[in-house]
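Hey,

Quick one before I head out. I ran the complex with adenosine-5'-triphosphate overnight. Inputs first:
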Amino acid sequence: MSKQTLSFQAEVAQLLHLVTHSLYSNPDIFLRELVSNASDACDKLRFEALNNAALFEDAPNLEVRVAFDREARTVTITDNGIGMSAQEAIDHLGTIAKSGTKDFMSRLSGDQKQDAQLIGQFGVGFYSGFIVADKIIVESRRAGLPAAEGVRWTSGGTGDFEVETIERPARGTSVILHLRDDASDYLDRWKLKSIIGKYSDHISLPILMQKEEWDAEKSEQVLKDEWEAVNSANALWARSKKEVSDEQYAEFYRNLSYDSQAPLAWSHNRVEGSTEYTQLLYIPAKAPHDLWNRDRKAGIKLYVRRVFIMDEAEALMPSYLRWVKGVVDSADLPLNVSRELLQESRDVKAIREGNTRRVLAMLEDLAKKDGVPAATEGADGVTDVVSEEEKAAAARDAGKYTAFYAEFGAVLKEGLGEDFANRDKIARLLRFASTQADGLTALADYKARMKEGQQAIYYITADNRAAARNSPQLEVFRKKGIEVLLMTDRVDEWALSFLTEFDGTPLQSVAKGAVDLGSLQDEEEKKAAEAAAETFKPVLERLKESLKDKAKDVRVTSRLVDSPACLVVEDGDYSTQLARMLKQAGQPAPEVRPILEVNAGHALVKKLEGSAHFDDLAHILFDQALLAEGGLPDDPAAYVKRVNALLA
Ligand SMILES: Nc1ncnc2c1ncn2[C@@H]1O[C@H](COP(=O)(O)OP(=O)(O)OP(=O)(O)O)[C@@H](O)[C@H]1O
């Protein structure tokens, strides 16, 4: 192929403009990105060579070399990985294929500072070379192609790039960066080596640099022909915990996740037994923006005996833990395992269960340490001996669970419906707003506060906390001082339908079924309610008749104190709120006909009997109950007309 000039895809041009014009806060990351690409290229070669060993040619030892040339002002990153054909260079370096970067582009605001921060979070791979270079030359030959089919790709990082065929005996890729005038710092062995140590130490291949020696004659450092590894070249997860510092764990996480924030917690274990594997799992501090996409693949990379097999191995984590990041390295799976095969493997099932247990254990641990460390003096007046170290550790973890829950609590609830085996553990990890506690409360804490004689854990679901708190259904609970949990997450009602009891106590929605406060209601109240219901019977019959198209039933209730009426549904029915939500989301929702409950002691209800406007009042009562819980009358205009007629 003779020299060709091609244009970058519009998005690439836009991205390059941003990379080169933004104040880039941390230029060092270019090296991390390019070394990471080089290492990926070696992983790909190793993977393809599983079925075609000839691809190794005469260079089976995979490695990355980082070199620099002070005269030519270049830094070169070379790998002997899979390489690129000419077409691949055009496709991969001229367009943006990966969804992460596309997504990043769509979130650009135009504000330079903000956008520069965003780049930091996402990392823009190859293009980050243009942070320090005003020209990049990529020379490559794909494994398996003849030396005559090498490719040279050249670009100044503006609108276009050139490609031409070259002779290249060496398999793999060299990325040659021609440094900008202000990037001379990188023409320094110590500088490059320290960046590699900081960001790329975990890479499992050797990263080589030339040795340097003091030349007395020239009185300067000169590079020798001898190369040495400047990283540990040992996959981080394959090392023992003692050998890995917190900073290294955090940096490895950054590499896996592109998350600029440090993880909240991690767990690194070698699991032995009938299925052997190593797991290194991280709990992120921040939810990704696409957390709610259930098709989102799990953030687990799968390796088999250190050989990279695949990203996003969704079979290794249940869907409700899809936000966990990490690595699993299996000792048992075959190297040629495919996604389909993973779904069926018994080993994979064991790994998934092991991962789930581990994540839940990490969360339990964070939850336990969440509160400010309690006073250490026991009831017997004896003070526990707590070391300074323990105190510091407790203080470090305080508040982490609350932070975690704010980000991931709602998705964790999906586990109630998805992971029956761990339902109790998950239930223990849930937190809810409540009528009687500040902040969020655990079900166990609710139980500990239950009144004597209280037989259920009460909750209400609503669109938001204010609506939940002011809901008429809560009136009698408020009057009796009984705590009610306020559930306002969209998944709550669905999730709670899988949790009928907690630790032996049933959960009961206060908007479902007849309210039965059991022994919390005294005999007198019960009798009064029964008597009211009896005398009210004729009015009830008329109400039922008037509202027969709207209400499944009409009955007298003791759950109301200040409001005239409210709507409830039967146990097992969708709540009107859930039905409304499904409808709004365009999902099929069953037609729920609620039950109208009336407060026989309320002035408005008393007025019904003998009213000349009975039918209008009945409809108003129903529509107002609907409004009170955030719904809308079927026929708002008719409602307004009726109210106006009465007001006139
Ligand atoms: N050293 C290399 N050897 C072979 N192919 C490469 C090399 N560097 C880049 N590529 C190709 O160019 C593509 C784009 O690289 P880029 O760094 O922009 O994104 P990425 O590597 O896919 O994503 P990320 O950097 O987020 O992991 C890669 O997917 C790969 O196909």
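Residues 33, 37-38, 40-41, 79, 81-84, 92-93, 98, 100, 123, 125-126, 173 surround adenosine-5'-triphosphate (CB under 6 Å).

Talk tomorrow,
K.
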